[in-house]
Every structure is written in C-alpha cells, then in structure tokens.
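Posted in: Structural Biology > Protein-Ligand Complexes

Title: Requesting predicted complex, zinc ion in pocket

I'd be grateful if someone could produce the 3D structure tokens for the following input. Sequence and ligand are given below.
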Amino acid sequence: MIKSRLEAVRALLAEQGVDAVVVTKYVNLHYFSGFRGDDTTLVISRDKAALITDNRYTEQAGLQAPLFEIVEQQDGLLSKTAEVVKSFGCRKVAFEGNALIYDDFQKLTELLEGVEFRTALHLDKLREIKDAEEISYIRKGCEIADKAFAEVLSFIRPGVTELAVAARLENAMRENGSEKPSFTTIVASGLRGSLPHGTATDKVIEAGELVTMDFGGMYQGYCSDITRTICVGPASEKQRFIYSKVLEAQKMALTLIKPGAAGKAVDQAVREALDKDDLGKYFGHGLGHSLGLEIHESPRLSKKSTCNDLRPGMLVTDEPGVYIPGWGGLRIEDTVLVTENGSEALTRANKEFIEIPLN
Ligand code: ZN
Ligand code: ZN
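-- Reply #1 --
Done. Output follows.
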C-alpha cells in the first residue's frame, strides 16, 4: 500500500522533472509513510525515502514507517531535512505548495544553497481515489455517526441546549469507537438554522424548531460526515414542504453520482430542482466535497468543480440545504462512495422527516 503510494509520488517527480519532494503536510506524512505524528518531514527522492523526526517519535516511526530511513534530528527539523536532501544528491527539489509555510520555505531555500527549490507540487491529488482499506475506515466512521444520531434522538427535547446535543453526539461517537470528531460539531436550531455552519451554542432548543446537526467521527485518521435535520414537536406546513423538497433533491443527486459524472453537472441539477419551487436562491454553498484524512478534499460537487470524471473509489458528500434568514433552515447530507456502477451512501441514518413527539 505505502509502496504503491511512493510509486505514485515518484511518477509525479518524473513528470515534473524534479529529483525529490519535501513533504510537510500532516496528513500527507501519514498517507505516504504510515507514520502518525507531527513535527516531522519526509524526503522522497526517485530511489530513497527518509523520515526526519525527533526523539519523541523515532521508535514509533520505525514501527509505522518501515519503508523509510528514520533520521533523528536534535538541532532543528529544517536543517536536518536540508542535510538529508543534500546527502541524497538531489539538485532539483519540490515542496508542497499548499502546506509549506512561507517562513519555512525561506529558511529551507537558504539551507539548500546550490539546490533548485522552487517547484510546488500538490500531493493531495494523489489521495483522491481511496483503496479498500481507506474505504473500510470511512465506512466504519459513517456507521459510528449513524449510531450517534439514533442515540441522540431520545435526548433532544425543548429545554436542552445546542451544546448539550453536540456533547451527546460526540460522546456517543467516542463510545462507538471514534477517536475524535472529524470537525467542530454543528447544531443549529430555530432561527440559527439559516447559518449553514452554525456550530453549537448555549441556545436553548424550543418546541416547533428545526434542529440541524452536522457531525462526523474520525476512525483510523479518516473522517466521516453526515447532516440530519429534525423537528422538535409537530412541524409547520412550510417546514414539512421545504424538508420534502431538499430530501427529494438530495436523493436525486444520489442517482447522478456515478463514474464519469462531472462535479459541476451534479451540483447544477440540484440547483435546478430546488429552483422549481423558488428555493435555489436559498442554497448558497456547493453540493458536496470529498473527504478522507481531511474533512474537505477534492473532488468537489460545485459550480467551481474541476472534476469532469468521477471515478470508482472516490467519495463525495451530497448535502443540499435551504437557508432563509429570519426563518431558519435545514440540510440533509450523506457521505457517498462512487462505485463501479453508481454510488452507495455510506451514512444510512434515517432521513425521512422526524418530528420528535412532545410528551
Ligand atoms: Zn457535514
Ligand atoms: Zn460536508
């Protein structure tokens, strides 16, 4: 697995005409070496691979990254990294354009005198298609999130705060095997529902309010992502109507997510569906994003998507929403795997409209 990932990096090095790349992004250290820790760099050349870290991590790195030569640094991570680059005899070296901070770039440029250090690579692209092991981790994370949703339903009632709901969700995910939340849990109730990213506050939930919960549990370093919206007590006609339209659009998108589909086209189809009831104008964000070691990855399903060809093994979220300032809003989201023939929603929690009985 790591072997084929290194091969992919080396193919990219050859394509770009560089001898090596310095890897600094946390999730890419993990992906390309197997090592799970920070304050570390990788130097991957056409025929060598080194992991530079400090004494806290040398033993762990030896166990987790057997394909790498482990180099311990004592006087500075960047100076040791530069030393390794030189010892590998590299003349032209790339860096991660979206991950190396400017100060470190400048320092490395100075330390690498005589080495051409100006090619920016985006290694994230190599993580777009997930292998069977990665898919199994994401599937498990989705199952954990599903269980948490089922458990939190019996807790939500008038008088509890959004923060208490978030705590229940996060605790349930932990108890079901998640390492930590994939991102800051969103619980937006009542008027706050018009905030697409309304993270939980101390607002008290009241009868008649919609409650949007967007959350996910990390498993083996991989994210999951689900949104469900429920009503506390009987819903109004308008709440039921808008929910039914968002759900219809969300389910329609599931049928469009398949190999060969373009990210822009799937997004556009959902906008057009919502427009039939004049709701498209309340849907301001993209339809979906990929996820994996990070919660937001490419490919995207949006107006700006550059993906013209979804492929089996890719993941995308399908998350239309309607947000009306002064009224509230709702969203329904699944994590979806692109399969050989179509797609499979990995999150399976009930998404028919739930109106929690008031007793
Ligand atoms: Zn989400
Ligand atoms: Zn999402």
